[in-house]
Design goal:
The chain has about 250 residues and is α/β, with parallel strands linked by helices. It has 10 helices and 10 strands. It folds into 2 domains: about 140 residues, FAD/NAD(P)-binding domain (3-Layer(bba) Sandwich), CATH 3.50.50.60; about 90 residues, Oxidized Rhodanese, domain 1 (3-Layer(aba) Sandwich). It is elongated, with a radius of gyration of 20 Å.
Length: about 250
């Protein structure tokens, strides 16, 4: 700001672009980063937006030391323009927040970050960087390829909808599950869909939302209306209801 002011005083044509409030902090073993608008800020401004959640490894999972980064991405539901993002994890948060800050400053979209050519080697990233994955998830929503349901609506509807967990049984035993669901692994879903006659909507979930998204595409082929919980069981397990109470789940065995 001081440099821009000095340049203007000196007669140079300079300007200060919008400040994105890019920041990061260390909270014990976790890095917490944010950039751009938050959901609260967009709500206050009356700006329509969509939000997606995912958890992605900071680098290739088979390389030692991999850990998850939890992301939230906010964007325009019509054209995919990026509004803001938050991330939390043990490692790699700073890199992704910096990339997203650059993208937001240039008014990039989910389609742009989907196709970013970012540095890859197993110690540093997955073949598809978490930023690319965020773009893919967001692009699927904008293009109406993915039908998602957010946690608040999921909690309201899960009692009357058919809730399907698409994880393998051993994964759900290790991670926990949602009470009252049905376990139909993705590989068995076509057989289930051919015989099932669900009463109303099907809500699918998995670990992070990947196989549950695929499940909605499979179910659509059978004429079954389905939506996937964005962020998956990770989102459900660690979220709280509006009154601050933790949502109920069945713990790992």
């Amino acid at each position: 700001m001081g440099r821009v002011a000095a340049n203007d005083i000196a007669g140079r044509d300079d300007r200060l672009d919008p400040v994105l409030d890019t920041s990061i902090a260390k909270v014990f073993d976790l890095d917490v980063g944010t950039v751009g608008d938050t959901a609260a800020a967009l709500d206050e401004a009356g700006q329509a937006y969509e939000a997606v959640y995912t958890s992605q490894p900071n680098h290739a999972e088979y390389y030692p030391g991999a850990s998850e980064i939890d992301f939230k991405l906010l964007f325009d539901p019509d054209d995919g323009t990026l509004f803001g993002a938050q991330a939390i994890g043990e490692s790699g948060v700073d890199k992704r927040i910096d990339v997203l800050a650059t993208a937001i400053a240039h008014r990039d979209t989910v389609f742009d970050i989907r196709d970013y050519d970012l540095a890859y080697a197993p110690p540093y990233s997955a073949a598809k960087d978490p930023v690319n994955m965020l773009g893919m998830i967001g692009a699927n929503v904008v293009e109406d390829i993915a039908d998602i349901v957010h946690l608040d609506e999921f909690l309201e509807r899960k009692g009357e909808a058919t809730v399907v967990d698409t994880r393998p049984p051993e994964m759900r035993e290790a991670q926990g599950r949602i009470d009252g669901d049905e376990n139909v692994p993705l590989g068995e879903l076509r057989e289930w869909a051919a015989d099932a006659n669900p009463d109303g909507e099907v809500l699918t979930y998995c670990k992070i939302g990947k196989s549950s998204y695929m499940a909605t595409r499979v179910l659509a082929e059978y004429g079954i209306t389905a939506r996937s919980l964005t962020g998956g069981y990770y989102r459900y397990e660690y979220a709280a209801t509006d009154d601050g109470e933790r949502v109920e789940s069945v713990p790992a065995e």
